[in-house]
Design a protein that fits this description.
Blueprint lengths: L1 H38 L4 H8 L3 H6 L1
Length: 61
């Protein structure tokens, strides 16, 4: 029983790590997109509305 529990826990930890990496990658891509839109002259209010970033976060990119 202990082996099965350990195996299950290891799988769950691996899944959690995978999700964390995917979330970090998605956030980086979203920041890159927001920065590009800002550089292209899209108003920060629109970028904020579409990305969920605050105006301050967008200006800091």
């Amino acid at each position: 029983m202990t082996y099965e529990f350990d195996l299950h826990e290891s799988k769950e930890e691996g899944r959690a790590e995978g999700r964390a990496e995917a979330n970090a990658k998605a956030l980086a891509e979203k920041k890159t997109m927001a920065k590009g839109l800002r550089e292209d002259g899209v108003p920060v209010e629109i970028i904020s509305k579409r990305t969920g970033f605050t105006i301050e976060e967008i200006q800091a990119l």
